[in-house]
Amino acid sequence: MPHVLLIEDDASVRDGMELVLRRHGYGVETAATGEQALALLAGERGARVELAVLDLMLPGMDGFEVCRRIRARAPKLPVIMLTARGDDRDIVTGLEAGADDYVVKPVTAPVLEARIRAALRRAEPYPRQGPAGQAPDADRTDHAGLVIDRAGLTVTKHGAAIALPPTELRVLLELSASPGRVLTREQLLASVWDHSFLGDSRLVDAAVGRLRAKIEDLPSRPRYVQTVRGFGYRFGPL
Asked: What is the pTM of this model?
């Protein structure tokens, strides 16, 4: 039974979402503040948490900072952020802080549960075949010093390990499966986020930005994940 950490300061919203998640078979841990959530993740109960649902508007430490600290402590933990405003700046800031996905409150139970299921699937082992259904030539490939091990799901650069959250890792694996091939944002949304609804290209752009910050020497002049203006992204390296 997957365990979800629900971080929401509004007791009525928190209780309602907890009830919905439990009815769908999830174990639920709850926290009313970011400080409580971080303390829980650092303790014994945190070891079983597989996903966090995080409200951005929290008392004390806001959701943006909580997300950054979760990413620092548990880089592979999926994070879905909740925003009541639907404000573009909040959404972009939250995605840049490390959130994998977002929903705007009020959110219906089917939408929330679908987003959680999709995020948990992204955290599962990645299929060893490429997006076109063809197996890569080798499980371990070296791209000008960036070594991608598709079997072990590890990435190193010049021998140093790079810790990537599931979403960023899947973006890299999708792009690197066919070097030189351009993938549109819509293709990446479908293959990485597995959304059954009209997706938001900001999810892709934010994940690419976070990925570049980890694997590129100069993120502003990327060698590995290149933008093809008007189309999408492709994997180099140049």
From this structure: 0.84
